[in-house]
Every structure is written in structure tokens, then in C-alpha cells.
Write a structure and sequence with these properties.
Length: 183
Amino acid sequence: MNPLTNMRNVLKLSEQELKNPSGKSWHDMYRDSAWIFIAGFPYTLSEGDIICVFSQYGEVVNINLVRDSKTGKSKGFCFLCYEDQRSTVLAVDNLNGIKIIDRTLRVDHVADYKPPKDNEKLDEETLRLYMEGCAPKPVIKPNPAAREPQSDLKLSDVIKQEKQKRKKSSKEKKHKKRRKSSE
């Protein structure tokens, strides 16, 4: 279906729901997911720009701006996760069909979405941002009573530790499956 037709259909559903209020909403079928799909925005928008627009309806906890793997440029769509599922209903109802820089946004629910876990493909800077976040670091004043030595871990050491943890947990899962199947 054409994305604009789909957007108009979602708007019609919302209008019908307002005219004929009943106990059930079409949003209820997505009550287990806090993810939304956003498409049609300008390629120049960054994650921060999208979060600024969508954070007016709730706390954004994750965003996956889909980019071209070779150039790194945005493909014009993303997946966004709110802290509370009710925020998705507000975002879909209020932001679907709006124009940003002469482009019409399409905003819709996502039933089953799992964020990508391609940490091996990420460059070191992006992986560091995923691990540490991009917020400013809090200034921690040293406590004279505490005499613990400071850890001088490098980012590469942290990455290795994370990979080892994942391997260990996947081995444990496989071991549990084998035990269950043998019983």
C-alpha cells in the first residue's frame, strides 16, 4: 500500500474513533509494544532532531535511525521506543501526517520490533556512544575515606569483556536447551 494512503487510513481510523467512541480502540492491538515507525522525514534530520520532535509525547528511550551502510546517510525512516506505551498512541494520533521541512511524516505503531545488535559492525566511536551514552559525565569528587584504586580500563578491554559475557550467556542457554531436550 502506498505510504500516503496508509497514513490517510490511519487518520480516518482516528477520526472515526472520535466520532463513535466505543470501549475498544484500534490502538489496543499494539498495547504490548512501545515502538513506533517514523518515515518520510528529511534526510538531513539527525537522531537528536527526531527526539526533539517526538519527546513532546513521552520519554524516548531508544531510537534506531536507519542509515546507508556505505555512506552513513539517513534513509529517511527510523524506529523509536517510548518509555510508556501510552505515548505511542499520542504520537501516532498527533504526529502522523504533519509536515516537517515540506515533507509529510508517516507515524505508525510497530507490533514486533527488536533493535539491532550488530556491535561487531560498529566503529569504535559509535560503540563507545552505545556503551557510555552521550550525556555529559557527572563530576565525581574523590572521597578521601575511600582508598580503592582507580581502574584504567581501555575501551577495547570493555568491548572484549562485553563480547565474552555474550558468548558465556549464549553457551549457558545452549547448555540449558540440551539438558531440557535430553530429559
